[in-house]
Amino acid sequence: MNKVLIITLIVFLSASSLAVGLPRHLNPSEVPEELPLNVELLTIYSLIVDAVQRENFSLALKNIDELGRVYIPENLRYIYSRFNELLDREIKILNQTKISLDNAEYELFKGVLENARSELRRASSLLAEVELIDGELSESCREFSKTFRIPLLQLSEKVAMLKELIKEYRARLKNLLLELERLEGLIILDTLLTLHTNVSEVLVGSELFISGTLRTEDGSPLLGKTVTVYLDGRKVTSFITDRLGLFKGFLKIPYIYKPTISIFAEYIPDIEDRGRFRGSRSNVITLRLVYNVPTIIAWLNSSEVRPSDSFEIHGQVIGANGIVKTIYVSFLGMDFNTDVLENGNFRIVLSVPENAPTGRHKITVYTKPHGIIAPASKSLEVMIYKINTSFIIEVPSIVLGCYRLQVHGKVVAKELNEEIPVSGDVVLEVFDRVLREVVESSDFSFNISIPCYAPSGYISMKITYIPRAPIYDGETIVREVLLINPLTVFVPVSIVTYLMVVGINGLLRRVRAMQEVSFKVVTLGKPEMVLIHENVVAEIAKIYFNAVHVIEDLTGLKRRPSDTIREFLDKAGVSLGKATLAFEELSYMTEAAIYGGIEPDLELARHLYDQILRWLI
User: Fold this and answer.
1) Taking CA atoms, which of 35, 141, 395, 404 is between 20 and 30 Å from 476?
2) Distance (Å, rounded) from C-alpha 80 to C-alpha 434?
3) Residues 43 and 179 in one domain
4) How many Cβ atoms are within 10 Å of 323's Cβ, its own excluded?
5) What is the mean pLDDT of the segment spanning 41-65?
6) Where does the pLDDT of residue 13 fall: very low under 50, low under 70, confident under 90, or very high at 90 and above?
7) Is the distance from CB of 311 to CB of 350 less than 8 angstroms?
8) Can you say whether the dihedral through the CA atoms of 491, 494, 499, 502 is positive or negative?
9) In whole angstroms, what is the distance from residue 120 CA to residue 126 CA?
10) Domain of 460?
11) What's residue 552's pLDDT?
12) Domain boundary among 460, 484, 508
């Protein structure tokens, strides 16, 4: 009977000690994955189809790319991706179809029938392909609507609008084919267009005289025809040919700041001339542009600054002949400007924002174009840094449950090897509590009561410094302290040990005796096991952890919070040299005191610590 009671009590005590502090949790597999809102999806698809109807294909494809970033559960991702893939393919082919139809129409206007025929063949093939894809897209609407709870009628109506655009392109293709057939039955004369200018370079902003001729392939001049002139690929002006097929006039050169520009002319037959003359393009003339490029010389008075600091940019603009009156500066996404003196010198003061990120940042000093003066720029670099801060703290290695934890320390900031007093807030996070103290001159302290229900083991303390001045960098450290709670360690261990040796009846008598004194030696045989006073346990643990810290600092070995005494001893192995035996004996003594209740020899423990320190140093 006694054995049954002992086993029952052991199971009960073990279960209760394990259950302390276990957080409640939710099984992730039981949490349903959320779908995107059906109203939002339908709105996006409506915007996509509307953009396609306006033939704004780039906007439609951009919106489809955005849909690819929406989170969809794994089991539904195929349906979602398949629908978007079909829609994406259909829009891309519709875009290619429009390009081919536009090119064919342009070639028909010029009378280049072979090119027009090639573009129309391509458009016909693309339309056949897009009609197949449109059929698949229409069929997938039902499954897509059911899966994502989108009204089928509204979704189908939107997809049907794409079919209308396909019909429109099909009708346009038919009309262009008819026009091609009509033109193929006519005799169309080729034309020759020439363009001339008497200079090879031109000043920006000036006027350029140009001339040219438009004739048939047999040299006959064409009267009253419109010739369009393009500069750098853009239409700039038009001329009408005279009875000799000549055209001439002045062309305004825009303020373009690049080495060269190209000019050409083009003749496109109007409605009356279609079927009579073929369009033509002139020779291309390349001209060198002439303008003045100033030089900017600039430098910083300080290449390293801190948030809220100010610094100066000095410099000079050379070669602007006094025309440039303002210099501009771009820094951290902000723009500034200042006046330029008559001699070209300038000076500007910039302030670093308090929230500026640290690191190297680009500064661009530039001028804007002004007539024949081209824009110029100069790049500089500034390093933004903060003064590093660190903690010096005093925290015990071991604390006892139901007592108080005292943390003292200071925040240290150093610059040029000088210690600077700092102010701000120090935040301590421990026992699921957040404590804050205002720091005025570096020093801080916390006095925390340790909950009596806290389980034994390592507790983590997170200490964060939040600077008041932006020139200082914040700092965060984490310290771990061994918490020994007699209510969750010593009493259960002692009771269980006692029950296993003398039985339940002896336990009842000694419990009454324990209530009369703070602690009592209980003889259990060899080795001698006692109920040790908590101060003794704390002292042996302190000596042990001091030895651990010495080993970590001098050997580079790191003890993980989860390492037991024996695991760290195995990790240290023989790497401690002559100190190995001393640390091994100290480890076993600490383990026996904390977990076995065996009275430690504190003098011997201190002697072993001194040996470890002496051998390692």
Assistant:
1) 404
2) 45
3) yes
4) 15
5) 89
6) very low
7) yes
8) negative
9) 10
10) 389-484
11) 83
12) 484
